Amino acid sequence: MSEPMSVLIADDMSKKAVEILKEAGFTVDVKTGMKPEELAAVVGNYHGLGIRSASKVTAATLANPGKLKIIGRAGVGVDNIDVAAATAKDILVINTPAGNATAAAELAVGLLFALARKIPQAAELMRKGVWEKKKFMGVELTGKTLGVVGLGNIGRQVAERGVGLKMNVVAYDPILPVLAAGAAVPTGVKVVSFDELVALSDFVSLHVPMTKDTNNLFNAATFAKMKKGACIVNASRGGIVSETDVLEALKSGQLGGVALDVFTKEPPDPSPLFEHENLIAVPHLGASTKEAQEKVAVELAEVFVGYLKNGVVKNAVNRK
After folding, report:
1. Quick check: is 237 catalytic?
2. What value does the mean pLDDT take over residues 154-183?
3. Nearest to 262 by CA among 208, 310, 316
């Protein structure tokens, strides 16, 4: 009789994942908070490794992969996994792109409202006992142009919600060239070039992965092409917006407001950026809903079962 499949859960995630794996006959160990060298020492004892954003799976982690066949990220980004190293060891890497899409989209829309009406700034003064109504004159989203960069699972939902808010929604996707032909575009959304989106948008919401092409995609040169006073929401990946350049654009008034859920370094170091009154910063809350955390855990467990028991490949980021 062959040994039962075993999975290591190395980061906090919903207990639903463990329940599904055990029901499928897997043995499951939950060991969170391990140091890199500790993870490297034990990872080869398992057929599957489930993580979120806390654990880093580097080439050193996979130096002696042993039985490891699959690494799963409960979330979208796989920045914390050396995908090339895993591929070289014939280890499948998967993510869970659908599970947290609604949560991330709703956060982005919430940040659009926060920018338009300066809600956090007003709330902060009220907390200090200051009634400052005239200072917080906002704008309506209705009738404004929303530029959505990236029409994947999350960006598409943001675009659809923008249409529902009676905004004029334009979109550009650097990853999916098929969109240039008008395929898979939500009703009411117009696909445009990057330069057109930058020039047309009153608000821009970013939903693309970090790649060599998207790194610092929004920098001083990009800001200069935008409408004066336009606003940006980045709830995708840190580094897509240049944090140095965005501060200067806020200081000059070229940007009217910026909302950041993600940062180049997390947690970020203290910076004058966080002191600017038109900057809204939150600590990577995109997937932080009870529903999303359960969905990504369930999705991860189901993919593990399908692959390790039946060889079914789903959500792979390193295999066609």
Report:
1. yes
2. 84
3. 208
